[in-house]
Amino acid sequence: MFEAIDTGLRDFIDQAIDSQEDGIELPCQVNDPEMWFAERPDDIEFAKALCGTCPLQRECLTGAVDRREPWGVWGGELFQAGVVIARKRPRGRPRKNAIAA
Q1: Torsion angle of alpha carbons 11, 16, 18, 24, nearest 10°?
Q2: Residue 54 annotated in ligand binding
Q3: Which residue has the higher pLDDT, 39 or 19?
Q4: Which residue, 90, 97, 15, 91, is CA-closest to 55?
Q5: Tens digit of each residue's pLDDT (9 = 90 or more) over 22-80
Q6: Is 8 labelled as part of a ligand binding site?
Q7: Cα 8 to the chain's mean position, in Å?
Q8: Are 57 and 75 in contact (CB under 8 A)?
């Protein structure tokens, strides 16, 4: 299985393991992993915020872009269909009328 992983992902995994050995806790390793692939927009935003505290954020994002990750939060950005998107739209039909603020 590990042989099928590309070099960039293997390097990232090695860095994550080294971080653990150094006593550094990565947000994606100490929180519920499902949060990075959540359906609710507020859960996605929380996961993105947690990524902001990660020492491997840049490497994670670079690797995800290189691999064209199909979906989820990687390096503090949300991916959908291999592309970074700003926000996840909630499920359901959009409103017909704008909400008065």
Answers
A1: 150
A2: yes
A3: 39
A4: 15
A5: 677 889 889 999 999 998 989 999 999 999 999 999 999 999 999 899 999 999 999 99
A6: no
A7: 16
A8: yes
- Helix intervals (H) in 27-78: 27-30, 41-51, 57-67
**Which pairs with CB-CB distance under 8 Å and at least 24 residues apart come from 92-97?**
none
Contacting residues for 13 by C-beta, under 8 A, at least 6 apart: 5
Residue 31 assigned as binding residue: no
Dist. CA 68–CA 32, nearest whole Å: 23
What is the distance between the alpha carbons of residues 35 and 44, in angstroms, rounded to a whole number? 7
Query: Higher model confidence: residue 20 or residue 71?
Result: 71
Q: Is 23 annotated as a binding residue?
A: no
Contact yes or no for 51/60 (Cβ under 8 A)? yes
Element (H, E) at 79: strand 77-80
pTM across the whole model: 0.69
State the pLDDT at residue 78: 95
Residue showing tokens 């929180």: 31
